[in-house]
Amino acid sequence: xxxxxxHASMESAGGRHRRPLAIAFALxxxxxVVEFIVGFSVNSLALISDAAHMGTDVxxxxxxxxAVTLAARKTSTQRTYGxxxxxxxxxxxxxxxxxxxAGFVLFEAIRRxxxxxxxxxxxxxxxxxxxxxxxxVSFRLLxxxxxxxxxxxxxxxxxxxxxxxxVGVIVAAIILxxxxxxxxxxxxxxxxxxxxxxxxxxxxxxxxxxxxEAAPEGVDVERITAxxxxxxGVEAVHDLHIWTITSxxxxxxxxxxxxxxxxxxxVLTEVQAVLRDRHNIAHATIQCEPVAFGETRGPI
Length: 300
What we know:
Blueprint: H1 7-42, H2 45-71, H3 86-113, H4 121-142, H5 150-179, H6 184-211, H7 221-229, E1 234-246, E2 249-258, H8 264-279, E3 283-290, H9 291-297
Parallel strand pairs: 2-3
Antiparallel strand pairs: 1-2
C-alpha cells in the first residue's frame, strides 16, 4: 500500500489555517453588522448587498473554521478517513449561500430600477471605505491558505468578492455624492450580484466533483493507466480508481497483474513511484495479482 498524507501533516495544516480564519471571521462579522445598519438606514441596495455578501462570508468563514478544527481531530475506527470531507461540505455550503445572495441582489436591483430611492452618498462612502480596509486585511490573511485548502479557498473567494463589492459601493457613493444619479446604487448592486456568480459556480462544481468522487481535474486516468501498464513486469491494470479525499489529498486504488517471473516488490515499488512522481498521487493502495489469479476467477 502506498504512502499518503499523514494525519499529522493535515493536522498541522489545519493549525496554520485556523488562526487567519478566526481573525477574518471576527473582523467580517463585526463590520457586517455595521454595513447592515448603515445600508438600511440610508436605503442603499449596494451597501445592503455588500452586507449580505459579508453575511455569507461570516457563515462561510464560520463553517470553514469549524471544518478545519474538526478535520484536525484524530480518526476513529468508524471514520477511517477522519473528518477531512467536512471542508468540502463547507465549501459546497458556501457556494449555495452565495447563489442565494446573488439571486436576492439581482431580484431587488431589478425591482428598484422602476423607482430608485434617494441614497445619500457620504455615509455610503465612509462605510464602504472602512469595509474595503476590513476586506483587504481578511484577503491578505487567507491568501496563502487558499492555495492549500479548498475550504479556505472558498472563504478566500468570498472575501475577494466582497472586496470587489466594497470597491463597487465606493464608486456608487462617489457618483451619488457628486451627481445624485439614483440609478448608480441599483446598477452597482447588479454588478456585485453578477460578479459573485461565476466564482460561486466554480467553487460549487469543484466541491461536487470531490463529493461525487470524480477523478481530480487535470488528472488523465487513461494516461495513468498506460504509464502503469508500461512498467516492466506489469501484465495488465484493472479497477483503477482515482479520487480526492480533501484539498491536496488525492488517492488511488487499483489492481496490477504481475507477469510470470516478475518480482512483486519491485513492481509495487515502481507503480507507487510512477503514481507519486509523475502524477502527484502519494496515497495509493495497489493490489498485485499473479496472471493465474485472473485466469482462475474468470472475467468480472
